[in-house]
Design goal:
heterodimer; A: 153 residues; alpha/beta; Mannitol-specific EII, Chain A; 6 strands; B: 91 residues; Histidine-containing Protein, Chain: A; four-stranded antiparallel beta sheet; 3 helices; 4 strands; 33% helix; globular
Chain lengths: 153, 91
Amino acid sequence: MRVVDILNQESILPQLQGRTKTDVLRELAQHLAQHTQGVDAEQLVAVLLDRERLGTTAIGEGIAIPHGKLSGLRNVVAVFGLSPHGVDCSSLDGGLTRLFFLLVAPEDSAGVHLKALARVSRLLKDKTFRERLLQGGSQADLHRLICEEDNNL
Amino acid sequence: MTPPLHARLTLLNAMGLHARAAASFVKAIKDLKVEVSVSWEGQTANGRSVLDLLILGAPRGSVLELQIQGDDAEEALSTLTRLVANRFDEE
């Protein structure tokens, strides 16, 4: 699985507005719902918040990978958002979170979900690449950057 | 320097080494003086990095090879062995 298989250009939010984790999750979920048939934003927000209660998905290095499962989805779908100011998400390393990669998987998809998590993590592993993302840009700019890195993995 | 400890741990939980399990792994050794490497299928991850552990993408049934070095190696080994055997306290 490649990242570009689950993330298209319209699924990128170059400037997240939210100042709290909940606000950012809502922004990401609303964006995904707008672009994905059969996804209800409020239901998705509830799923994501339930997951965060089990432990933060802000895994350090400025990265969060909020995720959850929804029945009715056919494939894993993603939204990538950049927070210009950074958000306190109770990250495991104590830092602010600026790179948000939302992953939503169908029910009964442990294998695919794990593969998507692995691929996104691999994409975000390189510090230089993360710094390039953090410089920001348009949806098209960020999508091009991600495609290039994804192809090199 | 004392030689590293080695262990082979089998993932028993349904989800494998997913995000919450990886976070539990990292937290379990956070305050210990150890370096832990985790290998599976030719890839090696730093056991202190959730990002690294997620890259492994190890599903249920995977046998992880651990190498643990440092003053607290024995404590880390027993803590991690228990964590994995208890399915990361998930089920």
